[in-house]
């Protein structure tokens, strides 16, 4: 490989990825939707070079073993990455650049919702309102979280769900779109993302109680900005919502016995709102769907939703990302640049 995008000799030597193998990196790959995505990607393309980027190597090892049981010959690498730590992202990016000479797909899936609180009064009120379907689909007005500062002095939710991922993109730029090829970025966002939860004056949601919603809205805007800045260079960014999925994240909202108790109700609700995808496999539908799409055919302003019908059929639907204020994506892009340049 010659030219601007050439990798250092030792990395080419190390790189086990011949030209036709896709290199896919997934953050938060050891559980839930991330792990289900890996399973689905290996089923789709057995030649993949899959890199599980996780903060806990024991859990990462377990995930790799589970994947290898059903895909014996799969090529699965592990990478230590705590997206909530600037130093960890920088070290991991160095490691990725030493191992591979390109990234075809970067799935930015790791995410947290710490100390969630359900507003039970609002839930009961909502049950008897005309807004009930929207309430179940978006949890609007139902959920708050308590955030804290991490060791970098950043709010933990924004650092994990947004800044760490953005820093990773910036650091991996030399591996994105090498030699005129296209590269793809896919964010696991949420239908809980709401414009009113985000303020450019409080870019980390330090003073609010909905950092999760705010950070997911910010990731939608950042994806939009990436498309505006980078599509012409062959870099395409998309956002998805997996629907409501039973994972460690949701088990952190209510105790598991409660979820088990209301499971029949959840199946019933699915008849009215196809956003209750419930299983990680179903939730990974839009992530998998994007993998097999031609990037030029995608809408840069869309959010792709994993949906499951009452009869259990999975499909992907595109909806416009909600209410973009003019210039907000660019402003956010610049602010995030400032953050990552603080390193
Ligand atoms: N479940 C749902 O209903 C919905 C989920 N989502 C989004 O889907 C994504 C996946 O979540 P889900 O599968 O549900 O939940 P899980 O908790 O099962 O998965 C989250 C993954 O992210 C990893 N992670 C968390 N923090 C970090 C970090 N600092 N560095 C590296 N990895 C980290 C976790 O690792 P570890 O095991 O070490 O904690 C885990 O692998 C999240 O972005 C979430 O916001 C969006 C909409 C709905
Ligand atoms: C289903 C019944 C009878 C009770 C559960 C009520 C809430 C706990 C539940 C209703 C809508 C859910 C929801 C989420 C969490 C749990 C609810 C608030 C999410 C916020 C989980 C994470 C996401 O990113 C969203 C897409 C979910 C939206 C719906």
From TrEMBL:
The chain crosses the membrane at residues 249-269. Its EC number is 1.1.1.210, 1.1.1.270, 1.1.1.62. SUPFAM superfamilies: NAD(P)-binding Rossmann-fold domains. One of its GO terms (biological process) is estrogen biosynthetic process. InterPro entries: 3KSR/17beta-HSD, HSD17B7/Erg27, NAD(P)-bd_dom_sf, SDR_fam. It catalyses: a 3beta-hydroxysteroid + NADP(+) = a 3-oxosteroid + NADPH + H(+); 5alpha-androstane-3beta,17beta-diol + NADP(+) = 17beta-hydroxy-5alpha-androstan-3-one + NADPH + H(+); 4alpha-methyl-5alpha-cholest-7-en-3beta-ol + NADP(+) = 4alpha-methyl-5alpha-cholest-7-en-3-one + NADPH + H(+); 4alpha-methyl-5alpha-cholest-8-en-3-one + NADPH + H(+) = 4alpha-methyl-5alpha-cholest-8-en-3beta-ol + NADP(+). Keywords: Endoplasmic reticulum, Glycoprotein, Lipid biosynthesis, Lipid metabolism, Membrane, NAD, NADP, Oxidoreductase, Steroid biosynthesis, Transmembrane, Transmembrane helix. The keyword Transcription does not apply. It is a single-pass membrane protein. It comes from the Eukaryota. One of its GO terms (molecular function) is 5-alpha-androstane-3-beta,17-beta-diol dehydrogenase (NADP+) activity. GO terms for cellular component: endoplasmic reticulum membrane. It is found in: Endoplasmic reticulum membrane. Pathway: Steroid biosynthesis; zymosterol biosynthesis; zymosterol from lanosterol: step 5/6; Steroid biosynthesis; estrogen biosynthesis. Binds to the short form of prolactin receptor. Belongs to the short-chain dehydrogenases/reductases (SDR) family. ERG27 subfamily. This is 3-keto-steroid reductase/17-beta-hydroxysteroid dehydrogenase 7. It comes from Sander lucioperca.
